[in-house]
Amino acid sequence: MSSVPTGNNLPTITKAYAALQRGGPMVPWTFERRALRERDISVKILFSGVCHSDIHSMNHWGQEFPLVPGHEMVGEVTAVGAGVKHFAVGDMVMIGTIVDACRHCEACKAEKEVYCREYPTLTFDGLDRVDGTRTRGGYSDHYVVDEHFAYALPHGLDPAGAAPLLCAGITTFSPLRHWNVGPGKTVGIIGIGGLGHLAVKFARAMGAHVVAFTTSPKKAEQALKLGAHEVVLSTDAEQMAAQAYRFDFILDTVSSRYPMDPFLAALKLDATLCSLGIPDQFDFSPMLLAMGRRSIASSGSGGTGDTKEMLAFCAEHNIVADVEVIAMAQINEAFARVEQGDVHYRFVVDMSKGL
């Protein structure tokens, strides 16, 4: 295994695209990526997925600017620290939404680091736990990460389609697993977009009866092709009324506020609706929860344990995201299209030829 001795290597000038100020466009920018530590690997980024949270961070959530987004990466290992055990130069790896955690709380010990009680270190716009510097994301030519938070790209999976698995994929896979979706279960998926299209694929592969809910009649055929057994137009009151007391679990991928009562009424006794979009406010009648001992819950993305399980599942069932591959120079246009819902179903930046 080729390695870079810890302490002898230097920070690397890194080419990137960044928002230089809140609400500003993405433009070329350079910064210093940290030197490798003992358990670090350096990864040449080949594909970087575009997540709606990238846009939110640029406009609303960002802590420090310039800000380099990106937390759905696939790339090639180019160097490893002296203590690295699981990767070698030339390996194809993936990096997701978190790159460190306290590693000693109950959640971390269970490989559920996304629920770290001291809060995990985010892949971009977080604070490094060692030196306190701001993390910079995957819209850059390379990334340095502790090997614990990197994953081997499963053999046979398309790397561009696999990139969104590290955010959109694990965010939907994790709750489906947690709520025991499988044979004999009727599962609803609300919203057929970046998250929802993967949720349909996962739930179908898990053996559930899958019903897709959409506000767009145009998406009905697409949802069936993705693996849904049925499609319900959620704006049709008659169709929604027919769903009462039917579902064991409903996964909601919608981030905007909408009337939830018809979906809560669709839950069986003791069933759960899991909101992944987490809008600023919920619009529902609490009595509907009492009437069926129903629950509204949510879920984070996933820790290293969930992510490894998901990638093995994807390899077994040949699941990747449906993507549109773009060049980095098209990123501002892509962001505008994401805001308009004009993407089928996830953008991925091809960085294999550089920025």
Question: What best-fitting shape do the alpha-carbon axes yield?
Answer: globular
Q: What's the order of the H and E elements? A: EEEHEEEHEEEHHEHEHEHEHEHEHEHE
Low-confidence stretches: 1-8
Range of helix content: 10-25%
Count of alpha and pi helical runs: 11
- CATH class label of the largest domain: Alpha Beta
Average pLDDT taken over every residue? 95
Whole-Å distance between the termini? Answer: 29 Å
Main β-sheet, in a few words?
7 strands, mixed
**Tally of distinct domains:** 2
> What is the number of E strands?
17
Radius of gyration: 21 Å
Question: CATH superfamily of the largest domain, called what?
Answer: Medium-chain alcohol dehydrogenases, catalytic domain
Helix/strand-derived class? Answer: alpha/beta
Fill in the CATH topology of the largest domain.
Quinone Oxidoreductase, Chain A, domain 1
Estimate the strand proportion.
25-35%
Task: Supply the CATH architecture of the largest domain.
Answer: Alpha-Beta Complex
